[in-house]
Amino acid sequence: MKRTVWLFILTLFFVTAGALAQSTGTISGIVTDATGAVIPGAQVAILGLATGSARNTVSDSAGSFTAPSLQPGEYSIVVNASGFGKFTIPRLVLEVNTTATANVKLSVSSAGETVQVEAAPAPIEAQTTTLGQVIDRETVQQIPLNGRHFLDLTNLTPGTVVPPNNGSLTAPSRGLGANSFDTAGNREDTNNFQVNGINLNDMTQNQITFQPSINTTSEFKIINSTFSAEYGRSSGSIVNVSTRSGTNKFHGEGFDYIRNNYFDARNFFNRATPLASGRQNQLNRHNFGGAFSGPVFKDKTFFFLSYEGLRQKQGILLTSNVPTAAQRAQFATSPAGAAYATIINVLPIGVETTTNGVTTAVASGSSPGPVKTDQFSGDLFHNLTTADTLHLYYAWQQDARTEPNLQGNTVAGFGDHRGAHRQIGTINEVHVFSPRMVNEARIGFNRIAISFNQNFTGLSSAYGINNGVTSPLGLPQITVTDLGLNFGGPSGFPQGRFVTTGVFSDTLNYLVGKHSIKVGGEFRRFEGNNFSQTAGTVNFTTTANFINGLANTFTGNASNVVSRIFDSSAAGFLQDSWKMTPRLTAELGFRFEWNGTFTEGAHRFVNFLPGSGTLTQVDQPYNQNYNYSPRVGFIYDFFGTGKTVVRGGFGIMADQPNEGVVSGLAGNPPNSSPVSLSGGNLAVGTLYTKAAVSGLAPSATNTNYRNAYMESYNLNVQQDLGFGTVLQVGYIGSGGRHLRMPLNINQFVTPNGTSTVRPFPTVSAASLIRPSAALGNISQVAYAGMSSYNALWITARKSLHGGLELNSSYTFSKSLDLNSLSGNGVQNNVNPAGDYGRSDFDVRHHFVFSGIWTLPFHGNRAKEGWLLASIVQAQGGNPLNVTTSNTSITGSGSIRPTLIGTYSTGRGALLPSGNIPFINATVCTTITTGCTFYTQTNGFGNLSRNKLNGPGFSDVDLSLQKTTKIAASVNLVLRIDSFDLLNHVNLANPNLTASTTGTFGQITATRNQVGDAGSSRQLQLSGKFTF
């Protein structure tokens, strides 16, 4: 079998290979005479206006011509045919990953006569069934972006939503932006990011390695449904970024964007607990840099150099319920001992309030969160010959930041600090063999080296907690459920990873008759070096248990976990765009992907095998790695005018597994000893000692693991309204199969009784590793997930014309799944189908509008050069999943309560504590009249997953810009951006752990922290100098 695979790979690359994704574009058209008859043999000359690059082609027997693999930019087109006058299009804009249509009508004329027309980019997408959207350079540069991260513009695409609070990859990282996004019913870890056609995914979690500076971004395209067969590796969106190149003129710019808390409105939750200054938390942000570009040799070689830096000083407000003064005093007599009693000293003293006879204490504090980032990039474009072009790009980023509230930490002094180096390099070569055959070759890599270290150090044993760790890793991650208190840790730190992905790809474009054919493939090589340690996790369900040192659950690992993981993958495809009639085009494609199984360099993979009950060393945890992906679609010009186009398509897209599928296997015995305990009343002084005897908690990967895939389909109608405006109405649907999800395969057998029997009480005596060791929870990476997504959408887009560009979309959608892979486990691991419900990122309504308007003022310098730009978003709330603190059955907090009464949701009046009530419901531990949620001691609740609905989101951002001409080619640009212009309060989700005390149902924070979208109004001032 291996011989067959490698034979396939060699054949793929020495015959014809193909690219995973394209960062170029295509110009095509039909040449006709005045009567509409096609003209074969017409000479078509295409010239790049910025670089002088030329491409010549000839119309075929059907009058069609196609010029693939062109760099995005502006082109002129000249068409000549014997007996006809010359036809010229002086300017046509080609966008990334699109086909620009340039139909030509020649007139019989005397020699030397020329017909010239102005051509705007065709608003109708009439060449492909792929559903997506180009975000052009004007939008990238002018739309106000909170943080200046290009991924925020993905919300302009139909089906993309503002992510939920519990998104791990979609939550904005301060100074760096989000690592992914949610779109068209796909999970956040299924997107494929490309720069100039080269992979930019960190395969550890399949997130973007880093966001290239928007200063170097020419434009990008998001594709989120029924890709062409040339795209693969992921079932979510394809994001193709095209970088800026130099031109025949020298250009330069320098800029500085400034933000300060004195410009900003105070965060809503600072009103009840203001800082001593009475103002917003500290936020001083300078985002500065510059670029220089031009020719090395005119019409031959061009360069573009860029630098961007960020210096940010920020105070992060952390607010939490803490023990009252009376409860703090009780620690002195805690049965857990004098050492444990000192743990109360790491918690701040809260401000007490009494409501209805209940006293609570709330502590607030500001924790520093500095960010420092430097990013350099260089781009070189060279016309080797008239038939060969070479494009080189390299970017390097160094960043360091502190995250005080990592893993939901609510107390100042914890969290982590981290430093990273990130790189990407790409080399692209385009060779024109003939007007009908063009080849694109790519080679490149992306790399990340990052380390994470906890802010709080010391020995847990100094605080009376036995976590088995003898290194100064600080406290375990400690949660007190009824208080909503979270401190210590972070769990799993320190850790680091050093990841490299290399890519080679090549695409052959071939025109034959009515067929435009692409054929090829790609090869990728991944290497990940990882290490981690942990102080563990400890959960207390009540404040009383916290005082007495009686934990509900404990997880830990006394050993350092290291791994060196490798993977190779290859893909091949064939795509045919067949123009069956002048009005009907069929798209037929097939893609084969071989995703090699991960291996570990030192043979450290140890899997728990349920069939034998053994811990077994394995080189390949699973064997399935073949994926077959057909793609079909049609494009129909309904009236034959090119103004009304109907498109539809279907495709199967497979996911390449990320490293998380197998990474846990390197941490199993004998490499280390992960343990877990559950059941309550666990004395903190003997946690690890007891767990080491009765709670070995190995990781596992299902030996029948299957690559996840998505069946995607869409149908839409486009209507050209004139004036560069197009209206689209459509439907998107998808169904996910074999989706990755975690399952505890050692859940207690009789959860509705009092039994503590597990399916695997011990490792088999026949096991060569840890025979007869007592077992606790066993977390297995399974492929049991499934999903369903359906959406109706409408968009209206006006291309830039007359100084005005508009874009708007509305999506009505519903997304369902078993698990959204965002931190929530299933309630009953034996019956995961019982968790089928709304996806964590489900949003029923989403609206977005963006606009750019060059104000029509003329006259002197004071009147000219004004520009307005805005983006407006509004959407409904994400689902809320109410759970109990009971973990005795599953070992995780995923058990839901029993619904026995009525409830409602909605923003209530501000409480004396400063919190906002949102879930209007009562909680009881015994069934009583008027109770809403019954938190049963044993068994599972009947409340559906994600049953409730959270707060919605709305935001208005506005930018005002003034460009003043200082000299003939020198300009000064002054700009002010207002984020959340209306200062609308976007609330985070409430506390969702049902409890009779504490803050259940209450909201304690805005959707994102200060400095990011969804916190409060923020102003940004900037200046840019250009020449």
Describe the protein.
It contains six helices and 61 strands. Helices cover 4% and strands 48% of the residues. The termini are far apart. The protein has 1027 residues and is mostly beta strands. The longest helix has 14 residues, at 2-15. A hairpin with a 4-residue loop joins β15 (201-202) and β16. Among the domains are: 2-116, Immunoglobulin-like; 131-249, Beta Complex (Ferric Hydroxamate Uptake Protein, Chain A, domain 1), CATH 2.170.130.10. It has a 22-stranded antiparallel barrel. A five-stranded mixed sheet has the order 3-2-5-6-9, with no helix packed on it. The protein has a five-stranded mixed sheet with strand order 10-17-18-13-14. The chain is globular and about 105 Å long.
List the topology elements.
Blueprint: H1 2-15, E1 25-32, E2 43-48, E3 54-58, E4 64-70, E5 73-80, E6 86-94, E7 99-101, E8 104-105, E9 114-116, E10 131-135, H2 137-142, E11 160-161, E12 182-183, E13 192-195, E14 198-199, E15 201-202, E16 207-208, E17 217-225, E18 238-243, E19 251-260, E20 283-297, E21 301-322, H3 325-330, H4 338-341, E22 351-355, E23 358-368, E24 371-385, E25 388-403, E26 416-434, E27 437-454, E28 477-480, E29 485-487, E30 495-512, E31 515-532, E32 537-540, H5 543-548, E33 550-557, E34 561-579, E35 584-595, E36 599-600, E37 606-609, E38 614-617, E39 626-637, E40 644-654, E41 674-683, H6 687-694, E42 699-701, E43 709-722, E44 725-744, E45 779-801, E46 804-817, E47 837-838, E48 845-854, E49 866-875, E50 879-880, E51 898-899, E52 904-905, E53 916-917, E54 919-920, E55 923-924, E56 933-934, E57 948-949, E58 953-967, E59 970-979, E60 1002-1003, E61 1018-1026
Parallel strand pairs: 1-7, 1-8, 6-9, 13-18, 28-32, 42-45, 55-56
Antiparallel strand pairs: 1-4, 2-3, 2-5, 5-6, 10-17, 11-12, 13-14, 15-16, 17-18, 19-20, 19-61, 20-21, 21-23, 21-24, 22-23, 24-25, 25-26, 26-27, 27-30, 28-29, 30-31, 31-34, 32-33, 33-41, 34-35, 34-36, 35-39, 37-38, 39-40, 40-43, 43-44, 44-45, 45-46, 46-47, 46-48, 48-49, 49-58, 50-57, 51-56, 52-54, ...
